Amino acid sequence: MSDGDAATAFAPGHVTGFFSVSRADDPMRAGSRGAGVTLSAGVTVRVTPSDDTEVRLNGDRIDVESATRVLGALDATATVEAETNLPLGAGFGVSGAMALGTAFAANAAFARGRSENDLVSLAHAAEVEAGTGLGDVVAQARGGVPIRVEPGAPGHGVLDGVPAAGRIEYVSFGGLSTSEVIGGDTEALSAAGERALVDLRERPTLPHFFELAREFSRDAELLDGEVAAAVEAVTESGGEAAMAMLGRTAFALGTGLTEAGYDPEVCEIHAAGATLR
Amino acid sequence: MSDGDAATAFAPGHVTGFFSVSRADDPMRAGSRGAGVTLSAGVTVRVTPSDDTEVRLNGDRIDVESATRVLGALDATATVEAETNLPLGAGFGVSGAMALGTAFAANAAFARGRSENDLVSLAHAAEVEAGTGLGDVVAQARGGVPIRVEPGAPGHGVLDGVPAAGRIEYVSFGGLSTSEVIGGDTEALSAAGERALVDLRERPTLPHFFELAREFSRDAELLDGEVAAAVEAVTESGGEAAMAMLGRTAFALGTGLTEAGYDPEVCEIHAAGATLR
């Protein structure tokens, strides 16, 4: 949990299947509705008090505004060392995981005595204010297959979940800019996301989630050529797959991508949310 | 998750440190406020559709009303096979774990298509109506170190958490009847529990939780001789321990009981809530 001054936390990755944007002046009320899958592949964050704040990802210095905002909110000057196998900007919620992991680890390293809901709220607000995500943090704090019924931080947002466990495969062909998509015109996208949410809540099963996520990526006109080909190859061989929002990434249930001839990364649905290590 | 018709789920054990009783005619609104620790030691529940409902715990037939009520609510006739290392009636929330595990496994085995919040609500109501517990189910659905801020099922209750990870030890000297305690006069107990909750929310750390739990067991006059001796032995050797509500069980942080000369069972704080296996 904490050795001397340093502390380590883990936050799961999160791929969104569909979503709608909920804007609000208060970042605690802003966010997104939708649904996704949290992954055992995630981000491990070690926070060590130091004279200057510095953030490293897999050993390289990097500017992650969501993480530095969290440190500021906790009045913490520290070295943040994050390690992950997930690609950046490809729809896995790495910035959200870094915000959340930094919040949990810094709270322990600096003995700030905040509750988990407080830490999730801090990380959510930091991510919204940085413009890098809307719904990943609350999903990554929950684990499983989160349904974001109402947007926002704890106390505002409402979560449910699809009961599920098992293997997830993914292939990533590159990044998409979350801030460009959620900063642009999101009316059609949000209408499609709201429809998918109503449908999923009527029958919250994993195959139904994948079906609705595929429909959403088409309706929202976000489906990318290589991703579309991978998703189609999986469904044609009888599996379930969809595109990760927002990245050029296809993810599949079980051995879907392997059976369709791809060489995917493999992980599991992560039952737990972010936690101290 | 499910092989043919059968499905398996796991629910963590849960030891409550302090609580207050919230009665209500609607079982979804009834429950308890308080705080506790969920444990990697828990209950694995396998549900197989069959012609007659039968519940087994570690191979022996047993009548667990919370579990049979859950099956009824899901219109499921099944064999429920539960396995656990935890003692019964000793404050580990075994009946709550059986209700929750049965809900998750039966939903999968019978393809009932309920959401996780629905399943937690079913299990919570079954446990309240059976009179065997008030707050275990919502805590066991969350994982970690749950703070029950407001009582009741999802949609009514509010949860927070103490950020924590690590080893938990326990020794059990026998049972206490939950239904006798929560069915009796709980005014003084609830007043002590409400005070502890206010204090914990001001400084939600694990050592503070243990301190408040010790105070509660004294104030509520539930502290048992052998349990009191074990708790005192741990604190005198510099560790943190408390009594599990409601059972003749002492639980400790890290190696507290070992260092005090006991031969305890060992587990971990469980990061996740109940889940399909």
From TrEMBL, chains A, B:
GHMP kinase N-terminal domain mapped to chain residues: 76-144
Tree of life domain: Archaea
Catalytic activity line of the entry: (R)-pantoate + ATP = (R)-4-phosphopantoate + ADP + H(+)
Name of one Pfam family that matches: GHMP_kinases_N
Gene Ontology molecular function, alphabetical: ATP binding; kinase activity
GO biological process, one term: coenzyme A biosynthetic process
Keyword Transferase among record annotations: yes
Keywords, sorted A to Z: ATP-binding, Coenzyme A biosynthesis, Kinase, Nucleotide-binding, Transferase
Similarity annotation: Belongs to the GHMP kinase family. PoK subfamily.
Function: Phosphorylates (R)-pantoate to form (R)-4-phosphopantoate in the CoA biosynthesis pathway.
Descriptive protein name: Pantoate kinase
Organism: Halobacterium litoreum
